[in-house]
Amino acid sequence: MILPFLTCISFILFVKSLSLGPLPPWACDMRFLPLCFWKELPFFIPKAIKKSVSGCSTWFPWTLSMEKRNPGSNHENVENNGQISLLDLPELTLECILERLSPAALCHMAGVCSSLRERCTSDHLWQRHMEQKWGGVIGHAAYLKWQLFSASRKNSIALEGLRPQGLIRFMGHAWPFSFFRSKFDHNSKKKTSLPVDSAMSWYLALETGSFWFPAQVFNRENGHLGFLLSCYDAELSYEPQTDTFQARYPPHGRRAMAVESGVQWERLRAPPVDTSPHVLHISDCLNDLRPGDHFEIQWRRNKEFPYGWWYGVVGHLESCDGNQLNCRCHSSDTVVLEFNQYAAGSQWRRASISRKEHGEVGNEADGFYGGIRKLYKNDEISTWKMLWPTQVLE
Question: Where is the F-box domain (predicted)?
């Protein structure tokens, strides 16, 4: 009976002690801790209470000014005046906390000491943030370009005889956290390296807009009528101030490179296939196409232009009345393509391709149709429908 009572009193004193000190900026990211934290909490209550009685104001070192810490210190130097460090937590509990932190909070924590810096810059933490924020727009082509970029930086560092700390310093100037910047400026004599090919390096290069990556843009050039319901390849750079992108479309023909600013996230996607915009896509779905199927097809104005992907629906042959019981369109060698965003009498409304001998077809007047891919995923189809124009095009 006495033991539960003492435990209860100890817990109340412990919780009360948590409110005595101000919280750092990253504390807001720790509101929801996993169950494993609460399971292991009782093992640390006695130690926390002992410190509270001797004058410790909190379990976590929140009352310590993070600005006064030495970023180059190690685990042994983290404790100050007998207070319990975050690094005193069990491995699983600490890992759960770090997994809850935002990228900004991880950068703050990385400036506290060398032990936390090693943990907070680990790939497995940053790969999760990469997937959450950039997974929808980063594809295989972007990854290959990043690998080349990283290899180039490694070679440059090797030739200059420098340690790979350039991105850390760049991060301190480009990342909008004065705390992080001041930490590494103050500790300039201590060498702090971050692998140029790490997940954190890639995330920060994307986040600061210093890395241009290949992706595709729906309705290019601010929804120009000539590009509605299309998707074109571009080089993109993130603009953190506006949470939008700048897009550079490659030059073609006599036309110079087009640049578009303010591109929203919902207009971007990672390329679904690894086909260059100047190469004919190999169609592997021709025998599966039936009326009502959704598709994307390559199209370009002339042979000097790159391909863009255009959305459409498979239609019925003119000889078919559209009755599903009598329809034999799927067994015909001819596939009818319908682009219903155009008016019924428009030259762009319908086109046809061959199932057996499909290559690039077209002319200078109507443009050239290339490879075709059938859309199987509902999220791809819904994205196109979301971009549907409010008026029928001529």
Answer: 83-129
